[in-house]
Amino acid sequence: MRGNFNYKRPYGWKRFALKVLDKYEDNTWLGVEGRENERHSTQDEWPVCYHGTVIHNCKSIVENGYLLNKGKRFRYGVGIYSTPDINVAAEYSSKFAHKGSYYVAVIQNRVNPSSLIKISKMKTGIGEYWITPTRNDIRPYGICIKKEATT
After folding, report:
1. DSSP states along 34-52
2. What sign results for the dihedral spanned by CA atoms 57, 62, 67, 68?
3. Taking Cα atoms as reference points, which of 93, 85, 87, 15 lies closest to residue 47?
4. What residues does 111 pair with on adjacent strands?
5. CB hemisphere CA count around 43 (13 angstroms)
6. 47-75, pLDDT tens digit by residue?
7. Phi, psi dihedrals of residue 5, rounded to the nearest 5°
8. pTM of the full predicted structure?
9. Which domains does the chain have, with CATH numbers?
10. What is the DSSP string of the chain?
11. How far is Cα 26 from Cα 136, in angstroms, rounded to an integer?
């Protein structure tokens, strides 16, 4: 559990943590203190979500946060789109080549549950979407990279 939402670890992905401790007004959103165990959230902890993108956008998102004016598709409303399922996010990531292999990159975030808008898998046909109306309510804290299987 993270932020009282189910949390699926990104198994099979290589995760690179971003330096976010003390970047914001406090660290409560990360749930770094007071966790009983992995199955419990801390008070006011934000849930984990994933955002698929192209590799060259990762640096800008990490440095500047999510910018709504960079969005191209707002099928279910204006906001930053993410999902609690890394495999759904990967569908929106473009492959990139590195040393003869192909990879996909997904940004791991925490999202403010009080502003979160959920769009069901039944409605999207792909997976659950989370829409965050403002850039201040979604914070990148990791980059996950996965090698694509060769076909």
Report:
1. ---STT-PPTTPPPEEEEE
2. positive
3. 85
4. 138
5. 1
6. 999 999 999 999 999 999 998 766 666 78
7. -120, 150
8. 0.91
9. 14-147 (3.90.228.10)
10. -BTTB-----TTSEEEE---TTTSS-SGGGT-S---STT-PPTTPPPEEEEE--HHHHHHHHHH---GGG----TTSSSEEEBS-HHHHHTTSPPEEETTEEEEEEEEEEE-TTT-EEE-HHHHSSS-EEEESSGGGEEEEEEEEEEPPP-
11. 14
- 144's enclosing H/E stretch is strand 138-147
CA distance linking residue 89 with residue 64, whole number of Å:
20
At 16, list the tokens.
Answer: 């690179």
- Rounded distance, CA 139 to CA 31, Å? 13
Give me 130's structure tokens.
């989370």
Instruction: Report residue 77 as tokens.
Output: 């409303």
